[in-house]
Amino acid sequence: MVNIFFGFWRKSSWVFVIVTLFYCYINLPESVAVTYNEAGRPVRFMDKQNFFYLAIGLLLGVNLLLGILKNQFQKLDLSNSGIKNPWFTKKENLSTLVSGWSDAFLAIINTFIVFVLFALRSINGDAQQSLDRNYGWMIVLGAVLLLILVFFLPLRILFTKPDSAD
After folding, report:
1. Which of the 8 DSSP states describes residue 35?
2. At 60, is the pLDDT very low, low, confident or very high (cuts 50, 70, 90)?
């Protein structure tokens, strides 16, 4: 059930991130402020088209790379690896766990990118393009979520048995 939820979230977050990217592209000014000084004034700008192509490339790269890694990991036979772990003897359970973890990872990354794009749109929406709100909490929250998710899979494999995963 959890894998179904994360699979749906991953697919819907992909749609939301593409829609958000197009929405932001339409509403952003021709030069997008991307770097700010201590006073919150923009110091570096990027052309709107370059920003769009960079964002699309980043999204496609991350999503394709993690999809390829998930598919390649599912093809591995870890039962002959010499490591005595109950997960490695039950290939289908391990494959289900890795698939759910990968879907959750991509869903969180895509959702985080949606929030970053809306924040960037909000910042660049006014004429001064000044950073008048503190978005540091969003970066910290995203980093904490990703750290939890990165360590979840190895800890789950090390400290649980596959029968409890069903």
Report:
1. E
2. very high
Q: With residue 165 as reference, give the H or E element that holds it.
A: helix 162-165
Mapped onto helix, strand or coil, the DSSP state of residue 33 is strand
Q: Is the pLDDT of residue 165 over 60?
A: no
Question: How confident is the model at residue 50, as a pLDDT?
Answer: 93
Q: Rounded to 5, what percent of the chain is helix, strand, coil?
A: 75, 5, 20
Residue indicated by tokens 């709100």: 133
Which residue stretches of 2-90 are H helix?
2-27, 48-75, 86-89
Task: State how far the Cα of 104 lies from the Cα of 145, in Å rounded to an integer.
Answer: 11
Spatial separation of the C-alpha atoms in residues 39 and 22, rounded to whole Å:
30
- In sign, the C-alpha dihedral spanning 118, 109, 149, 160 is positive
Give the span between the Cα atoms of 166 and 153, in whole angstroms.
Answer: 15
- Please give the angle made by the CA atoms of 106, 64 and 14, to the nearest 5 degrees: 45
% of the chain beyond a pLDDT of 70:
93
Distance of CA 83 to the CA centre of its chain: 30
What residues does each domain of the chain span?
2-165
Say which residue the tokens 């700010």 belong to: 36
The tokens of 152 are what? Answer: 């979840």
